[in-house]
Structure to design on (369 residues):
């Protein structure tokens, strides 16, 4: 199996980076009408800047309001709007689902795509895939693309003003990066782009985890005060770039499969992607029979930044055997990343790991109350 590493063509991050978006588009040779697919909050934050800077550079654009869910009907609606606008470039602005939709539209029309996240809640911006849900929020499938975004531009001033919960959720998504890449590499399974894992991917995934441990608490404290500090910059980079490159070129495993499984439980629909992935990481560590010290370290980090370590933290006060089986069946469905583990998994294995991880998390919380 050949080693494969992928990344966006260009990544730009910093305070007030949106002011440079028009110049970056010109630098990349991305010309013509730009259709921006943006959530309501993202539109309020970036539209005045787009009017000023795109107008100054003579770049025509329009904004399409994102309906909130990356679903097949929403992708179709946005694609039809892009065709009607005769768009030459698709720009996604907002959270992960808006960016996933933008990438799906760009791929369907074979157009360049630009990702401008306004929260650092997931590693979606850099990837060559979209996670597609049903209109009511149940995971359906992933769509994979030939290339990564042409440009990812991250305005850290905007992200630092977002509710801190999103930054914390991004840490939950990033937390899985090292452990899933390590598992994929040790099992000699294919990463998300179908190749063996490179040294670069492993180094990036490891750095992602180290950055979370080093800067996570300081970044949260700063954002709660509305401050943009070097620690916040590093956590935004970890959540977005390091985790994005690490998961795609490193590979996924049980942590994200558990997230997908949890989406079948209505109680979890109010929780963010990264919050569910954080608990999925704990399930993975239990399934892999990792050293108890390592598991304790992960739970301690999660508690220190406010990430879930039990099912109760995700709205499931009591997990029935029937619901556990439903979650487990989704988590080990054919094609799921759980099959990147170095051993075969059964529904019973996954059910037991869900119950065990929940018990370990509840016990840890009780002892550190």
């Amino acid at each position: 199996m050949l080693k494969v590493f992928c990344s966006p063509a260009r990544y730009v991050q910093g305070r007030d980076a949106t002011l440079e978006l028009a110049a970056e588009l010109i630098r990349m040779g991305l010309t013509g009408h730009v259709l921006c697919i943006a959530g309501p909050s993202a539109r309020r934050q970036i539209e005045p800047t787009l009017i000023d800077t795109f107008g100054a550079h003579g770049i025509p654009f329009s904004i399409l309001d994102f309906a909130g869910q990356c679903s097949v009907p929403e992708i179709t609606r946005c694609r039809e709007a892009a065709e009607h606008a005769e768009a030459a470039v698709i720009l996604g602005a907002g959270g992960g689902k808006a960016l996933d939709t933008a990438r799906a539209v760009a791929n369907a029309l074979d157009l360049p795509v630009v990702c401008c996240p306004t929260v650092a809640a997931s590693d979606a911006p850099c990837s060559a895939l979209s996670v597609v849900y049903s209109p009511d929020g149940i995971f359906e499938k992933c769509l994979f693309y030939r290339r990564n975004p042409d440009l990812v531009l991250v305005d850290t001033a905007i992200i630092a003003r977002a509710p801190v919960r999103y930054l914390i959720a991004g840490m939950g998504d990033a937390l899985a990066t090292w452990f899933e890449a390590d598992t994929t590499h040790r099992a000699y399974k294919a990463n998300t782009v179908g190749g063996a894992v490179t040294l670069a991917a492993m180094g990036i995934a490891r750095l992602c985890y180290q950055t979370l441990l080093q800067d996570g608490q300081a970044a949260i404290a700063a954002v709660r005060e509305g401050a943009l500090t070097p620690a916040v910059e590093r956590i935004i980079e970890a959540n977005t770039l390091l985790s994005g490159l690490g998961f795609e070129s490193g590979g996924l495993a049980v942590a994200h499969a558990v997230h997908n499984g949890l989406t079948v439980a209505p109680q979890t629909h109010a929780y963010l992607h990264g919050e569910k992935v954080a608990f999925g990481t704990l399930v993975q560590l239990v399934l892999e029979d990792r050293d108890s010290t390592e598991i304790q370290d992960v739970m301690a980090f999660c508690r220190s930044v406010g990430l879930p370590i039990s099912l109760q933290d995700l709205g499931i006060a009591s997990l029935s055997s029937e619901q556990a089986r439903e979650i487990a069946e989704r988590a080990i469905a054919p094609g799921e990343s759980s099959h990147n583990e170095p051993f075969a998994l059964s529904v019973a294995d996954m059910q037991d790991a869900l119950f065990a991880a929940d018990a370990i998390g509840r016990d840890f919380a009780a002892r550190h109350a």
In short: The first strand starts at residue 11 and ends at 14. Residues 328 and 350 are 5 Å apart (CA to CA). The chain has a mean pLDDT of 97. The chain has two domains: 11-160, 164-367.
